[in-house]
Amino acid sequence: MKFFATWYPYDSGMEMQKLFAVIEKAEKDGFAGFEVVPPIELLPEYNKNTSFFLGKNLLFTVHFDYLGTNLCSKNKGIKEESIRQLRETIVFAGKIKAKAVVFHPGMYYEEENPEVAVTRLIGVLPSLLKFAKENNVVLAIENMENKKQQLCISPEQVMEFLQKFPDLMMCFDIAHALYTNQKKNFAEEFWRACKERVVEVHMSGIKEGMPHYKVNLGESSIDLTSFIQQLKEFSGLVKLENLNYEDIVLSKKYVEQKLGESQ
Known about the structure:
Helix content is 45%, strand content 14%.
């Protein structure tokens, strides 16, 4: 597996220099790569600085802006604007030779059947996948947690998209799976069902009353050792999804320790 760090501009600062500083740290600390989360209003600034990303000895992925976007929105204007923003993000990802663009599947409205939103998302994916391919980028749909009428909270829902679109890949988020269902083996069964199409894993701990991105793996109330063991043969990307860079480093050390114990 290849460890990735990340930076959340909405929470930690929108200034490009802050992002650059964290990327420099990640490179020095031995991370294989970095997931960039460009806010749409700053995308022109990111595009001006593609030489910085290309000059790093790191792999990159890009996470599509999750704030206010909804690719399966019942509101046509919101849906079309989300598509436009994702296309712009794909162009940027292609410029920095990113390995994937991760996106959230979106949300349905409380009064409607979720399958109606699934149909809307199925309708927009063909053109987006074609556009991504033209820009040498892979699109990866992320599993979500069971709140706010999110799509893709079960392996069956994710596989519906993966089976319909051979070019679509997946980002597996362990914390989202655990927050959806903490019953023993749910997350691991989710992983086994989809792992052949996974290009990236998001890992963070979970603790009651706290958002997962504030919990490093060593602080998690659920022991993730058995899942970490299953990742031993995974050759893809593992993003340690914590808000603070120090927690990202602690999570990396935790995974390395657990892998060392199993040898």
